[in-house]
Amino acid sequence: MSHKSNNNTVRLALLLGLFSTLGPFTIDMYLPAFPQIVKQFGTTASLVQLSLTACLLGLGVGQLVMGSLSDVHGRRKPLLISMAIYVAASVACAISPSIWLLILSRLVQGFVASAGIVISRAIARDMFSGHELTKFFSMLLLVGNLGPLVAPVTGSGVLAVSSWVGVFVALSLLGIYLLAMTKWKLQETLPVERRSPSNFVQQLRNYGSLLRDRSFTGYMLAQGIMIAGVFAYVSGTPFIYQNIYGVSPTVFALLFGSNGISLIIGSQLVGRMAHRVSEQTFLQLGLWIAAAASVTVLLVAYFHGPLYALVIPLVFFVASIGITSTAAFPLAMESQGHMAGSAAALMGVIPFLLGAVVSPLVGIAGEDTAVPLGVIILCTSAIAMLSYFLLVKKGVKKADSGEEKQATV
């Protein structure tokens, strides 16, 4: 690859990475404001967590819609419209007079924010394949994963000079910037001749075809269920760190941000070593690290261990997400170039839908225990591992066995 071509690739990764950060910023930036929002509306922690659930639900369902639309209408048009609606939804969050209107506005905000996630990944598949896709996706994640690192710190900075309302004003400004980037910087990557027909039934058939693909489904579930565990962490740690361990919003942001660094390290490890170590090997490594880390978190939570004893395994757990996500995405997308938008949508919808389910469960036992968090991330790690070994590894063994029988005949 020439120097000029490499520079163009880096610029594209930076641009698409900006769109990928919209999801993390939408989710994470208002997390330090949870206790403030509880007091503002005179409500409960679980109801405030429901606003996060609504956002995650919107992000999940929205990806299915945006992925299909981008396969039919190209990548730019759906992204332009979504960014415009995102700005309006962010303003609606800022001026919400009640918790229920905030929850509704968060649902819309998450729905349109999903376009940035799914369409940026579809563009990546439009342009790359094989190990090149793995390397490019790791660069994309390098930028995108800065969202979880920067968002809570930015949110704390806004809260230092404003109320929680200022967080959503800042998100509306981010939406305006991304709208401008879509209009003037992003080129269309899906030519008309490669687009899917504008047929709802055909779109459903595309999703059905993907779900019948054993390997694709295994990779999708392994990645998606793992990320759902992170959403439990995202929902639970604002209360665990601040209420149980008594840290300040600033310290919480720093602790939360440290896990953003571990996420980046995990994803970059896969990208850097893609030509030496297979994606399959990295995926299995990430699953085993997650299992070990989640067991440790549960034990620390059960025995009320010190803060550092909880933070360290959580750092490893989040790092395992960077490893598994970066390895599973190219493995799943490799044979889906003809419907990359739909495939990327399914890869994205599972974590958000499951995240919407598990997020409120973290607070089911109250705000003074971290045990539910340990139980949830242990369950997600175990189910993700089972999904991989039963659907992908078992399927590979069956295929190899079938080839051997044919060769014998």
TrEMBL record:
SUPFAM superfamilies: MFS general substrate transporter. Residues 9-396 form the Major facilitator superfamily (MFS) profile domain. Its main location: membrane. InterPro entries: Efflux_drug-R_Bcr/CmlA (IPR004812), MFS (IPR011701), MFS_dom (IPR020846), MFS_trans_sf (IPR036259), Tet-R_TetA/multi-R_MdtG-like (IPR001958). Keywords: Cell membrane, Membrane, Transmembrane, Transmembrane helix, Transport. The keyword Transmembrane applies. It is found in: Cell membrane. It is a multi-pass membrane protein. It comes from the Bacteria. The chain crosses the membrane at residues 12-34, 46-67, 79-101, 107-124, 136-155, 161-180, 219-241, 247-270, 282-304, 310-332, 344-365, 371-391. Belongs to the major facilitator superfamily. Bcr/CmlA family. This is Bcr/CflA family efflux transporter. It comes from Paenibacillus hexagrammi. The lineage of its organism: Bacteria, Bacillati, Bacillota, Bacilli, Bacillales.
